[in-house]
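User: Could you check the structure of this?
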Amino acid sequence: MAQMAIPDINIDYYMNLVVRRKWWIIVPVLLSILAGAVYIKITPKSYKANTLILVQAQKVPSSYVKSTVTESLQSRLHTITQQVYSRTNLEKIIKQFDLADNTDNREEKPTAKIVENLRRKININLRGRGRTQAFEISFLWHDPKTVAVVTNAVASQFIEQNLKVREDMAMGTTAFLENESEKMRRKLEAQEKTLELFNKEHKGMLPSERQSSLNILGQLKEELNHLETRIQSENERAVMLQKQAQMLQIVQMQSSDLFEIVSDEEGAMPSEDITYLESQLRQLRLRYTEKHPDVVALKRKISIIQQMFDADMNEEELPMPEPVEDSPVSEEDSTDQFDDPMAFQQDQTKFQLETINKNIESYQKKISDVKKEIKFYNNRIERIPEVELELTKLTRDYSTMRSRYQILLQKKIDARMSEQLERRQKGEQFKVIDPAITPDKPVKPDIKKVILIALMAGLGIGCGLAYLREIIDGSFYSIDDLESFLGSKVLVSIPYIKGNI
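Assistant: Sure, the predicted structure tokens are below.
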């Protein structure tokens, strides 16, 4: 592979060119330096003042009080910068420091131009990374005293605006949380009323009352069983009394027949009748048992006749009873009952039957009421699952609202503490660590930079003109140039001799 040929650079040629065309280079350089000097002379001087502001972290640990200002420093700086750059604020600065009469051209300008010119000359640069952050504010102006004062004033505005922005954010957060918590409180109260109304409407059917309803239902069933047992017992008593009444009727009929027989026999005594009846009783016992109806009836007759005989015997000896006031039984009734024990017993049996029937009616009415209550509690228990489902939905919504309300309350308390933190200036703050001072030297125009640029421009222009003049010139200044032009060798060369010959 062939290597690329690197052309030889003839240093002597260029050195001779510079020597030959030195004035073509020196003159442009001098003119350029002169132009730079003139520029430095006529250009208004501008002074620059800087102030460095440190961003201090929150003084109270965030584990105790959380700040509600979560906006980043860059975002807050952008907001504050826009506020400082606002037309209203810049007009205040212009009026405060009389910047309208101290413009660059010393000419009166429209306010809009002055404001725009001032806005361009205020610069903000963010510095630092991580926890240690700072930013620099610089201001460019033609008066060194004014530039320092304005820079410090702008820095003070940044500090004040930062405090205001943080306080407004904290107050806005607190107001928002208070509004939301109040809305949530109203919703929670409405939900509580709904839940309370639901509990009232479904009282007895709530899941918490299931066991009490079951207990009451068990007691009602026991009462029903007890009433049914009482009715059964009363029915049995009624049957017994009815049988007893029938027996009394049979005995009464047989006794009436016996009384007729006794009355037909003139001169017969009750004692003889009893003897006769006892003989008949003995004959019946030979054929029947003691429980046979004829035996029982005959025994009953004998007992009644014996009672009547005893009563006749003692009638003259017994004193007459005095009448008792307000007695439920009259004297005539008492005499009838005493004279007719069978009728008295029948009346007692009838009275007992009526009492039993009344008791049975009362028990049946109670049974009807108890059955209604049992049906009522059965319906309650059957509706408990449905009510429980609706109550679960209401309770779930209420629990969700309550938890959200508790969270909002806690956030509101934290926001109030954060607001107090900002008001007492214990949160993140801006602190000036390098205030602006009056500059000694102007930053514009930069003399070194201007001279260097003028020198470089003069050299460039001079070298270009010298090279152009060398190309235009047709003279030969070396044997190589002549041989290259003639295409032949030069035999003799005579050097250039200065002076007269």
